[in-house]
Each structure stands twice: as C-alpha cells, then as structure tokens.
Amino acid sequence: MAEAHQAVGFQFTVRPDGVDLKLSQEVIKNIYLSGVTAWKKKAIQFKNGVLTGVYPASPSSWLIVVIAMMSSLYTRIDPSLGMIDAIKENLPYKRCISLQTRAVLSAILFATGLWLFFIYLLRYTLKALLSYHGWIFESHGKMSASTKLWLSLVKMLSGRRPLLYSFQTALPRLPVPRVDDTIQRYLESVRPLLDSEQYNQMEMLASDFKETEAAQLQRYLILKSWWATNYVSDWWEEYIYLRSRSPIMVNSNFYIMDFLYVTPTHRQAARAGNVVHAMLQYRRKLERAEHAPLRALGTVPMCSTQMERMFNTTRIPGIETDIVQHLTDRKHLIVYHKGRFFKVWLYTGGRHLLPSELENQFQRILNDTSEPQPGEQRLAALTAGDRVPWARARIKYFSHGLNKVSLDAIESAAFFLTLDEEPQGYDPAKPDSLDVYAKSLLHGKCYDRWFDKSFTLISYPNGKMGINIEHSWADAPIIGHMWEYVLATDCFHLGYSEEGHCKGDVNRGLPSPTRLQWQISAECQDVIEMSYLSARRLADDVDFHGYLFSEFGKGLIKKCRTSPDAFIQLALQLAQFRDQGVFCLTYESSMTRMFRDGRTETVRSCTSEAVAFVRAMEDPGATVLSEPWKLSTSQTPQQQLNLVDINKFPKYVGAGGGFGPVADDGYGVSYIIVGENLITFHISSKFSSPDTDSGRFGQHIRKAMIDIQALFKPENEKRAVENGKYAHLENAKKHM
C-alpha cells in the first residue's frame, strides 16, 4: 500500500546506546525541496513587496537618481542647493570617515530622500486624479475632452506592469456624503412607491431626523473616516452578513456555473484534477501578488483587498455574531464523497501536485467503498441551518478529541471539494436542466457542501463543475475573477488526453487520501438532523428558473446607444410591474472598489424616471410602500475578456451565477451579458409565496426586453438603410 511505502521512509529504533534514526533518500530529498521552495516563495514575496511599496516608481529609478547625484560631485554642479553639503557636515562619526566617503554618503542620502519625495508626490497626485468620478456619469458611448485628458494623466502616472496591490495606497478613501444629499436621495428613491399623503409624512420624518440625530451621527462618521481606511466596509461585513442568525445557505451564499455549452472532459476525477491544479496556480500568483489589478476602462484601478481571503478562509459560527477566520500557507484540501470526508495533500517535494496526480487521488476517493461513520453523512448540514445551534454544537461537540482535529482540518483547508453523485449541466433537450443545476449549486442536498468555507468546489460525474460561495469575505466579482482564470487555464493551457484524462504521467507512489475520523454522539446527531430539516425546508421552498435570452444581446443594445445594464434594469422594472401590478423597492448591487477597501453599495433602480417609463408602456397601476427588497438584482460581470476569444471560441462562454430571493414574496435576479448575442438570467423566488413564479417572471423579462428593443427599431432600420445606401455607393464607386 502507498501508506506503508511512505511510512518506511522514516524509521527510528531505541537501543541501549541511543536512538538509531534512518531517513530514506526520498524523504531527505522532499525535505530539501520543501525548504528550497519555502525560501524561494519568501524571496519572491519580499521582492514583490518592495516593488509594490515603491510603486509607481521602481528600484532601478533609485539607482538612476543616485547616479545623477554622484555625477554632480564631479561636475561641481549642486542640484541640492546646498543640502548635500549640510548632510555631509552633520553625518555622525564624520571624523572617522574620509571627506570623499562623506561626500558619497551625503549624495546617496539626498538622492534617496529626493526619490522618496517623488514617489509620494506621484502617489498623491494619482490619488487626487482617481478621486474624480465624473466619467461614470457621461452619456453611454461618449467621452468628453476633459475625461480623455484625465484618462491620459492616469495612464501616465500608473507606471508599467503593476502588481496586484500596487495601487492600494493611491486609491482614494470613500467620502462621507453630506446629510442633505443623503436625505434628498432617499426621498427621491421612495417617491415612486408612495402616494402624496405617505410621501408628505416621509418628508416630515426626514426633516425631523435632520434636525435631531443627523448632525451627531454625521460627526461620528467623519471621525471614523479619518482613522479607518474605509468607514463603512467593516460595518457592512458585520451587520449585513456576520450578525445574521438565519441560515447562510440560500439566504447569503451564491453560486457560479461552469461553461454553458462545453464540457472539456466527461471524466469526473480528471476535470476536478485540472480545475484544482489551476486553482493552486491562481493561489500561488495571489500569494505573490503577481495578478494584474483589475482596472475599469483598462485604466482606473480597483481595490484588491478582498482577494486576500479567497483561500484558507472559513466563517466560524458564534452565538451573537460569526467571525471570518483566514489562515495562510495551508497545503491540504478536504473532499466530500458519499457521506465521507477525506484529506488530500496538495503538495509533494515542495511543488503542487500535477493534474494527473490530483486525478489519481480523486479517483481513489471515488473508488473507496467504505461507509460513513455514525453522524458523518449529514454533518455539513450544521453549516446549512440556523447559526446559533451550529455555534453551540461546535463548542459542545467539536472542541476536543477527534472531532476537533477533523473540524480543524476542514476549517484550515485551502477550500472544500464535493465529488457529487448526480450529473448536472445545461441540456437544451431538458427545459428545466438549468433550474436543477442552479438549485444543486445553491443548496445541493443541504449536507454535501460546507457552506462556511470561502467556497465549495462542486464536481459532477459528467465532468461539469461549479462553485458555491460564502458571501461575507468578498463579493461576486472577486471569486468570478478566479473562476474565469481557472476555466481558461483548464481548457486552453492544461487540456486533456484523447481519452479525457489529465495530461502527464501518473505518480502512484503518493500517499492515499486519509479519512477524517469522527466520534459523533447520538445527542449531536439529533442537532445535525434538526439543522438538516430546517435547511431542507428552506431549500425545497426555492423556485429557480434559468433563462437564456438569445433574441439579441449587448451588440444590438449598444446600437440603440444605451447602456446594456440600464436596458436590462428597465426591462426588469417592466417585468416586475407586469408580474405584480405594483412597483417595489428594488436593489441593484454596485461595487465601490474604486475606493480603498470598498465593497458594495445599493443602487435603488426603481426611480421616478423608471416608473414613468413603465407607465408609458403600460396602463397605470396602484403603488404601495414596500420595505423589503422585493426585487433584488445583480449583474455578473465578465472581467478578463482577454482569457478566451469568444469570437474564435463561441461555445466557451460561462453561464454566470445566481442567489436566493431576499424577500419571501419577492424575486432575486442575477444576469450575465455573454458576448454580443446572449444574456443569461438566473431568477429565484419561493414556492410558499402565492404571488411569485420564477418561470412566469422569466417570460415577463423576455417580453419586456423585446418590447423595449422594439422602441428603437425605427431608428435602427433608418441607420441600416443609410448604411445600405453607403455600401451601394461604395460598390458603385468601385465599378466606375
């Protein structure tokens, strides 16, 4: 057996004259390689830390400034205006140093100070430039001369080849808005939802707030904004996510799907091997800060702080509030299959396991026929149910012995992998295939995903993949960035053999994955069952509908000279009104990552203008003030368009992801604009609400999209005719 083969690598024998220690050459080699890799990693991290610390300058620029100052000593030109001489006269121990050496040291010190001054000058100039956000509010497809000049200046000061965290210190802080502006914007957002009497009462409440608590609260916010890098992000994380005591499954966690049309291999272990290896490559670049920072318009940098907690992160349950635990440099993975938990080492001899080695390890798990231990199969249901029972059970049953060791292994793992038993994916021949796939990723069986991990990777027996993501540590674009990289690396860099296996030789000498051991009492099993039943009721109530809108995409929308996102948001408002007959408070997520440590803000997209548009499209209907977010919307952006050429590989498009409904009687809608001709909608609601139906809402979206696009048809047809006339004219010229 592989375990026995590895065990004999290290032996010792106690004798009367001492201990006889024997190490095999393989063990010594692995220890050596692990040490070399660790030091190499530290050296790279140190080097990249220096590069980030002096950005937008470079260490070589310091040498240039020093050489310039040294040259001035020989040309007798003093660019320092006497400062070099002053430094020379005030050097400590100057009597022990020759005059020439003192002159050289003084020039180096002055050059270093000048270099640091210019670094901070560039950095604060860039921060001042990045505080301008007028470009966001310009008409779609147009850019003013001032914005073009601003973009040129930002590009000029951004340096070359920035690392992941190069822009962090140059990002502006999130400003505290004026109380008057906040109140005015709030009143504008609720005006479409209230009748005149209700709105007048709301104005009185807003005025009363302004005259009483507002001023004091504003002072507190301003004070916090002075010493915190972001005055709202820590509160957002704690109060929006960590303090919630309801299940995070469905209510908070979200999912992202695999390629929509393509399955690179139908071998489950092979696909998991490639994907896990690609994730390890991504993590290595993340630890070394070698990823390029994401930039809007290809120029405006965004905060990268959230990416730090992508791996080795777990949400730990508490009685009153949860905490996010992030560890570093953990080298194992936990795999769940048929009710058993396995620990898989991801490194050997100081390197990642190769895809073929990972495939072999996962295949060993798939071939394992052992039975789950008592209480083991549904153990993860604790992470799916209410938080307080899980927190109490963790303290009582998992704080000592085997249970603590095994739970520590899960919570310290790089991430969690489920080798699922039922195939999933989009099948055009099965109308509900996308719906079932979405529900599998969102909640599964309620006990086969560890919902507390930063993310759970899910592998299906037909080769499809997906991920379920815990929300508190980061927002969707963060994990989406990693997933785009992984899918592209899997298909276009790693690839598969003709038989569908991972490329490369199989190393069968690796130790087999080890089973986690549990001692789960009958009392603890009862708690697990209660959590499972609670989670099962929640999961069964989710009505999901995945809808592929292929009549047109952003290509045609852009020809209408409007923003694709604005177009879709108006379609959602029209669909909501047609579905419910009333307008409702609408949540649209927007990121604030152009500010330091920025996360998410709310766009209230049910505006007076949107209501006026819907009323112009439909007969007027009655409104009610609705406090919950009955319509919660979010776009899944494509961030790294350079990874896959969709024009060349049109089938390699992602299906996006989704989330559960925020309100019991509302809808959750996530959408992804894929290429030029496809928009995928992920629609969720609850079966228990008599007023909602995800499938019906999908049809309302389809009709709304087509109806709005029809408004632009006369203009499009006119432009097409003009283009046709121009083409005929060009052809006529060619034949003259």
TrEMBL record:
Annotated keywords: Acyltransferase, Fatty acid metabolism, Lipid metabolism, Membrane, Mitochondrion, Mitochondrion outer membrane, Transferase, Transmembrane, Transmembrane helix, Transport
Reaction(s) catalysed by this chain's protein: 4,8-dimethylnonanoyl-CoA + (R)-carnitine = O-4,8-dimethylnonanoyl-(R)-carnitine + CoA; (R)-carnitine + hexadecanoyl-CoA = O-hexadecanoyl-(R)-carnitine + CoA
Species the sequence originates in: Fundulus heteroclitus (Killifish)
Membrane topology: Multi-pass membrane protein
Signal sequence segment: none
TM stretches of this protein: 103-122
GO biological process per UniProt: carnitine metabolic process; fatty acid beta-oxidation; long-chain fatty acid transport
Domain Carnitine O-palmitoyltransferase N-terminal: 1-47
Active-site residues (renumbered): 471
Protein name: Carnitine O-palmitoyltransferase 1, muscle isoform
